[in-house]
């Protein structure tokens, strides 16, 4: 490797293939430039800095998505016009209301299946296991649309919050973002704290949350029971709910402590008739992307091995659809 890097030894195709196999990347990674957003991100970092797991995984996803979009004429992503950057909490709340309207949501209902809801706006969400010590999420803007990668090792509430956070980056046209710990910013005036608040406001709209909380309390629920009902309905974790209720001045900090300590039990699910949904369970790929890969496979644009590779090894070859046998005269389309 030292001789190769110093130009003292040429690299054969076989050697390059072996290096690619050892690094777990495709050989064209050495021949084609990385997507512009990723190149820009690398240029901002110190030379030689270690690349976190999420950087490597999202680069693979971006390359694969761009390949599929280029080959599949039916596939295509839209790009929304960038939102104005909020500078105050009031502007953050207004941005969240605008985003919910864009997603076709009113000011009361929960965001169900958030990955499916944001996809028509051009953001494709992938959820893969990256390890407990990896970043929560990352997002990359494409020429059209964008990609969000969520750490599947998070609990479901944090996975949903991470998608909402990456949706904010997407709406603001942030070229590349890696978020190590969503909703853990210590400075309430920091940029990431504003995006965290947007994520909470998107998932927990003020009119709906305050109205439901007050109805629960008026009907006799204690703080714990009210928290279990509201968190289940809006599909958020207790920490996210507690922070949202405080910023909406629905409860004080002592009440927030009680909410954070609440845990939904099996008895709660039965007695309160709660809906339990395990969204973004890893491995999860966007349905639009899977359909595009299957179209390329059915058209025999790609092989079964390439299809499995594009599906990030989350499928078995036996799961691919059977191909129609070609007629005998089809050979003349390949032989001139």
Automatic annotation (TrEMBL):
<dbReference type="InterPro" id="IPR001387">
    <property type="entry name" value="Cro/C1-type_HTH"/>
</dbReference>
<protein>
    <submittedName>
        <fullName>Zn-dependent peptidase ImmA (M78 family)</fullName>
    </submittedName>
</protein>
<feature type="domain" description="HTH cro/C1-type">
    <location>
        <begin position="2"/>
        <end position="30"/>
    </location>
</feature>
<dbReference type="InterPro" id="IPR010359">
    <property type="entry name" value="IrrE_HExxH"/>
</dbReference>
<dbReference type="InterPro" id="IPR052345">
    <property type="entry name" value="Rad_response_metalloprotease"/>
</dbReference>
<dbReference type="Pfam" id="PF06114">
    <property type="entry name" value="Peptidase_M78"/>
</dbReference>
